[in-house]
Automatic annotation (TrEMBL):
It holds the Pfam family Metallophos. The chain crosses the membrane at residues 6-25, 46-63, 75-97, 118-136. GO terms for molecular function: hydrolase activity. This is Calcineurin-like phosphoesterase domain-containing protein. Signal peptide: none annotated. Keywords: Membrane, Transmembrane, Transmembrane helix. Residues 155-315 form the Calcineurin-like phosphoesterase domain. Gene3D superfamilies: 3.60.21.10. The keyword Protein biosynthesis does not apply. It comes from Alysiella filiformis DSM 16848.
Amino acid sequence: MKFYFMSQFPIIFFTVWAAVQFLSFNLARGLAWQGKMRHVWARRGLLLMVLAISNGLMLLAFLRLHHHIFRINAIWLTVLWFVFLATVLAWIVANILRRSRVARYQNADLLQADLRKIAPVLVVAMFGLGWFNAYVPAVRRVVIEIDKPMAQPVRIAMVADTHLGVLVGKRQLDKLANILNEEKVDLVLMPGDIMDDDIAAYTAENMKPHLQKIRAPLGVFATLGNHDVREGKHITQAIESAGIRVLRDEAVWVDNRFWVVGRPDNLDAERLPTAQLLQKANVQQPIFLLDHRPDGVLAHAKLPIDLQVSGHVHNGQIFPGNWVVRFLNEIHYGYAKRGNTHFVVTSGYGFWGIPFRLGSQAEVWIIDVQGKKTVG
């Protein structure tokens, strides 16, 4: 996979670069239209300025001269994309109004005047919706019946991709704790990307007391995701000091009822194959697997795994990212069943890079697991 990506890198890079030029041109043209710029030199100057900002930020992000540059570039690209989407919506609105029988919109100047009022509202609305989706989590629910007996049902909360850092912190943790308390969950599973690359912001903002509020009667279990692996030792220590058990190729027998099995992200070169990891558990009993990425679905469906919880792909986070991840993954989001294995893939509780979501929403999954019903 890595070799394939590197071989395709020039094509990917050129495609992204060309898209940024197009979006930059669209922004400059939109600003010139909004500002009623009539002089060619003014419009060209504006275009050159926007192109300079776009390409300059891309270059700085590529060179990685400062860790905040990537986030700034990501926010700028989001601005370009949201303005483009607003442009498309404004074009649709314009055509609807033009074809209406309202006399006002048969006058091109009056139509343009109203569109100049509508366009900024569309952009602001898009950012507002993106912010809401990022910071106001939804609660998703699913009830599953596994193919093994259980003495009693268990209610699981699955929370992935919290990305604790500069933009996700104490307030979101408190909100999460409230959700878990209201839902009266028995168990919490957190399959990866707990931190946003390091514990700098987590430590500076004193998030530990807030992470400690994440509690459940049968325990809270986590695994490391791709954003946790680089600083894995420090992140593991921080998470475990808050009372959350981090599983690294481990299987834990919980309450004499079921196994919780956790594996680190595949960036950990030493992680065990899933089949080998399952040898640490009694596969005749219920098996709940935490695996950060939703890959290997078809292989895992052939193993005696009853439930796999995953995250990582964020359901694309920003439209049309959800279409892209749908194409790249067997199960990109939500609940699905393959063979006797139930899969739940979450869009995540936090976000990556930018505090916006469009076409996805922050969420917590509540999974009610019931055992196989016996006849007689």
